[in-house]
Amino acid sequence: MVRLYTDQLNIGYGERLIVKNLSVEIPDNQITTIIGANGCGKSTLLKAATRIISHQSGSIVLDGEHIAKEHTKILARKMAILPQAPESASGLTVGELVSYGRFPYQTGFGRLSKKDYEVIDWALEVTGTIDFKLRPVDALSGGQRQRVWIAMALAQETEIIFLDEPTTYLDLAHQLEVLELLQKLNREQERTIVMVLHDLNQAARFADYIIALKNGEIVKAGTCEEVINHDVLKKVFHIDAEIGRDPRTNKPMCVTYNLLKGDNQNEQTTNSVPALHLISS
């Protein structure tokens, strides 16, 4: 049985629907990536799935229960989210920030137990940030800070982790560092990872399952082979893409593309645009 799925989900702000009649299953113990143009509803879907925002109709079901009815602390023990722009951690040390991940397990006066400290150190070790434990978060580089935020999510000890554009503002090396860490968590600890990515080749390289959205609706959901292809990318991004093979993973990759003009998508620009943010290890 799939643990997490949506059924005829509608999400909006006021009278404007952003996500429309969306039904999708999130594969357990896999990496799922959500792709689509700006404003298509990727972040909105993540926020609703983690109950940061409410949905207007339909349902989001986790372990057979509607998340809208789940107690906050119980839900926080099942899923964690790293938003696109985490709140400022100004004045906090790395250890203090990661300790916030233990909130769902605290009782009484909220004092940390021996178990809490053990989990905090474990999360720091796994993310390679244990040496930063006493350093101010503000003193870290962008890549280091992102790993610390992931450590905080890990400290929640959830089996499902949502990340909204975890590689934003990072250089190529740090992007790869973060994505390889998430892949390691998935493979070694069987964490279910759900993340929004803009880079198509990163999505193809690291995802087991991809959901392509356009205007709040699913164009295609499936394996990398099923989603990263000419027809789907044309519908989702309005581009004419040349698809090749990543020589290191043998997964599909966008080698180059033309922008399409007009509503009929028949005209093409004369110059091809090289694929951006290609990464290798």
From TrEMBL:
<keyword id="KW-0406">Ion transport</keyword>
<dbReference type="GO" id="GO:0005524">
    <property type="term" value="F:ATP binding"/>
</dbReference>
<keyword id="KW-0408">Iron</keyword>
<keyword id="KW-0472">Membrane</keyword>
<keyword id="KW-0547">Nucleotide-binding</keyword>
<keyword id="KW-0410">Iron transport</keyword>
<keyword id="KW-0067">ATP-binding</keyword>
<feature type="domain" description="ABC transporter">
    <location>
        <begin position="4"/>
        <end position="240"/>
    </location>
</feature>
<dbReference type="InterPro" id="IPR017871">
    <property type="entry name" value="ABC_transporter-like_CS"/>
</dbReference>
<keyword id="KW-0813">Transport</keyword>
<dbReference type="InterPro" id="IPR003593">
    <property type="entry name" value="AAA+_ATPase"/>
</dbReference>
<dbReference type="InterPro" id="IPR051535">
    <property type="entry name" value="Siderophore_ABC-ATPase"/>
</dbReference>
<protein>
    <submittedName>
        <fullName>ATP-binding cassette domain-containing protein</fullName>
    </submittedName>
</protein>
<keyword id="KW-1003">Cell membrane</keyword>
<dbReference type="Pfam" id="PF00005">
    <property type="entry name" value="ABC_tran"/>
</dbReference>
<dbReference type="InterPro" id="IPR027417">
    <property type="entry name" value="P-loop_NTPase"/>
</dbReference>
<dbReference type="InterPro" id="IPR003439">
    <property type="entry name" value="ABC_transporter-like_ATP-bd"/>
</dbReference>
